[in-house]
Amino acid sequence: MKSSITQGVKLLATGSAVPNLCISNQVISNIVNTSDEWIFSRTGIKERRILSNNNSLIDIASIASLKALEKTNLNAIDIDLIILATSTPNDLFGSASQLQAKLGANNAVAFDITAACSGFIIAMVTAAQFIQNGNYSNVLVVGADVLSKWTDWSDRRTCILFGDGAGAAILQSSSLISNNILGFHLNTNGQKFNQLNIHYELDKHQENVFMSSMQGKFNVITMNGKEVYKFAVSKVPQSIQHCLDSLNLSVDQIDWLLLHQANARILNAVASRLMIPKKKVISNLEKYGNTSAASIPLALDEAIQDYKINHGDLIVLSGFGAGLTWGTIILKWQV
Ligand code: COA
User: Fold this and answer.
1) 238 within ligand 1 shell (Cβ under 6 A)
2) Active-site residues (predicted)?
């Protein structure tokens, strides 16, 4: 879908934050019947960070945001819009306003986007629309999730996978010539929503008949691992290819493949289908597991900090997950 584009979108800076508590595969093997060898060989994950004590999603989201802001000449008050991609808000009415308050970004309108592991991609595309049509100049996009709160810690098929984290990006309106978001492609298949979800169910134990017919609570994460795996390795390469074709770019022109950090086998399978060499695949999931909406900005921030990504590099960002939803952005990094 095309719209009237008057401005370019410049990625000014990124930031990220993870909780201090580190849970190794060894520790997980004391909770459920599994092993470091099984987890690492099937997923590539060694450890993950878990939010504990009184810390909240907003704490890590705000640290990531401040780290990104510090790298720019902007203050929180200069931000026009905050988009928080999360599926694990503090408040069902949305958490972005709490982030706005914590940052003191009093001029910003703030709202949440719920799109699970594709959340950051969709939030970036949403932010880009507001900038490209000339409505906002400075936008903070945050991907943050604390899936540990919604994990069934007795289910070895899922509890090995997830971790908590936050990543942030500051986007700014620019001339069309210095535009960094070259193109995108987004998809949803709601027919398969129940392959990976946290569903709401009525409380069968509620004694009051009237209440039990209308009130309940959200369940824990349920997932059909094999189906989600098949979905990712088939749809993500198609999305990336579609996006590259629309920009007349070839796979060879891509410097980095940065996929949602779900599973090393998915990363390798997608790269191999597209014939992208392993050395171009960015991965940090060994340290953090699947951090949902945080995974792409967290890996992007680390790769920029490590000087892996250089001025002028083309990066494919691709997210996929519950919904089922998936999407790709082609990004040009310019210092
Ligand atoms: N430790 C040890 N054994 C485990 C285990 C664990 N943590 N989890 C499952 N198993 C067992 C199963 O019980 C099964 O045993 P059985 O054959 O005796 O029944 C066996 O290992 C194989 O299980 P299966 O579910 O077929 O494993 P798999 O090869 O599909 O790997 C996943 C499981 C979850 C790692 C894999 O399906 C996957 O990564 N899927 C994608 C999930 C994902 O990325 N989701 C998020 C997307 S955003």
Assistant:
1) no
2) 117, 260, 290
pLDDT (tens digit, 9 = 90+) per residue, 123-157? 999 999 999 999 999 999 999 999 999 999 999 99
324 preceded by cis ω (within 30°)? yes
- Determine the average pLDDT of the residues in 11-20: 97
CA dist list (Å): 216 to 91, 155, 213, 286: 16, 22, 8, 36
Q: Binning pLDDT at 50, 70 and 90, where does residue 202 land?
A: confident
295: which 2 tokens?
Answer: 């995974």
Cβ–ligand 1 contact at 160 (below 6 Å): yes
* Ligand 1 atom with minimal separation from the 156 CA: 7
Q: May I ask the CATH architecture of the domain 8-178?
A: 3-Layer(aba) Sandwich (3.40)
260 is an active site residue: yes
Q: Which residues contact 167 (CB under 8 A, 6 or more apart)?
A: 14, 15, 16, 17, 64, 120, 142, 143, 144, 294, 295, 296, 297, 298, 299, 300, 301
263 is catalytic: no
Q: Domain limits of the chain?
A: 8-178, 181-192+221-332
* 117 belongs to the catalytic site: yes
pLDDT grade for 216, boundaries at 50, 70 and 90: confident
CATH class of the 181-192+221-332 domain in this structure: alpha beta
C-beta 318 within 6 A of ligand 1: no
